[in-house]
Amino acid sequence: MRYFITLSYDGTHYHGWQVQPNGVSVQGELQRCLSLLMRSEVTVTGAGRTDAGVHARMMMAHFDTDTELDCRQLAYKLNRVLPFDIAVQSVAPVDADLHARFSAISRTYHYYIYTQKTPFERHYACYMHYDLDFALMNQAAATLLNYEDFGAFCKAHTDVKTTLCKVTKAEWHQTSATTWYFEITANRFLRNMVRAVVGTLIEVGRHRLSLEDFKRVIEGRKRSDAGESMPANALFLENIVYPITFQQSCG
Fold first, then answer.
1. Which label site among 51, 86, 233, 248 has the fewest CB atoms less than 10 Å from its CB?
2. CB neighbourhood size of 139 (10 A)
3. Is residue 236 within 8 Å of 110, Cβ to Cβ?
4. DSSP for 130-178?
5. Angle ∠(241,246,251) on CA atoms, nearest 5
6. CA 99, CA 206: separation in Å to the nearest integer?
7. How far is the C-alpha of 192 from the C-alpha of 205, rounded, in Å?
8. Closest residue by Cα to residue 8 from 60, 80, 45
9. Residue 94 in contact with residue 4, Cβ under 8 Å?
10. Which H or E run contains 128?
11. Closest by Cα among 140, 159, 162 to 151
12. How distant, in Å, are the alpha carbons of 70, 158, 186 from that of 123?
């Protein structure tokens, strides 16, 4: 039987989602605790691979077992043994052909920034100490929907087979006089893509790149032409959409 786990985590102290040979990962902690509770080795497959320091308000993962499980009890027990910076919201049985990664229709990330120094935003947002033209940044963000090849925003020397993605939403939202977040939704994301997109949009907002320059960066498909990769602590995986809704179990 196949089960889906809905979870969230603070990525501050992890080397990303994926199991690492020399670092603590979210996937590794989830597998360790599942294996402990089920008294056998369990492997989980996640919906994606968040980088070191990146957070997730929603991550989905699946695992297979021959045992019929009490989903409510398993969610409860997982939350008792997992570290406090990882929380399980639900466990649900699904069809065997539903895959946490490949069945996902879309994923949404938010990148948070603040423009006035405050001690309370620094852990989960990035401080911008210069003026930004958000109207121009939103014009540039809208052009992302007109492209499919985002090689310019892919970390160099990765083993991806394609740099094609379908972006369906990209815009900045203001939440207070000094706080904003960038929202981007796509069917898939390349490694480091969101932070590189944000870094390049920041260059537009500082008037160091024009709209035409921004388009040329995308069309040139060279990572060296794009902006810097922004700090990981301000990036959140916010939502993942599947072709079904899940039967929820209380965690």
1. 248
2. 13
3. yes
4. S---HHHHHHHHHHGGG--B-GGGSPTT---S--B--EEEEEEEE-SSS
5. 110
6. 41
7. 20
8. 60
9. yes
10. none
11. 162
12. 36, 28, 26
Contact 66, 145 (CB under 8 A): no
Residue 247 gets which letter from DSSP? Answer: P
The tokens for 125 are 């947002």
- Is 240 exposed, middle or buried (CB count within 10 Å of its CB: 0-12, 13-18, 19+)? buried
Give yes or no for a contact between 78 and 88, defined as CB atoms under 8 angstroms apart. yes
Encode pLDDT of 87-144 as tens digits: 999 999 999 999 999 999 999 999 999 999 999 999 999 999 999 999 999 999 999 9
Mean confidence (pLDDT) of the chain: 94
Angle between helices 211-220 and 193-205 (to 10 degrees): 150
Q: What is the mean pLDDT of residues 10-16?
A: 97
Reply yes or no on whether 70 is catalytic. no
Quote the crossing angle between the two packed helices 134-143 and 211-220, to the nearest 10°: 30
Q: Please report where in the chains the tokens 């790149």 appear, as a residue.
A: 209
**Backbone phi, then psi, for 170, in 5-degree steps?**
-160, 105
Residue 74: how many other CB atoms lie within 10 Å: 20
DSSP letter (8 states) at residue 71: H
**What tokens does 72 get?**
């409510």
51, 95, 131, 159: the catalytic one is 51
Structure-token pair, residue 55: 């957070």
Tell me the DSSP string of 47-108.
S--PPTT-EEEEEEEEEE-SS---HHHHHHHHHHHS-TTEEEEEEEEE-TT--TTTT--EEE
For 20-64, write each residue's pLDDT tens digit. Answer: 888 999 999 999 999 999 999 999 999 999 999 999 999 999 999
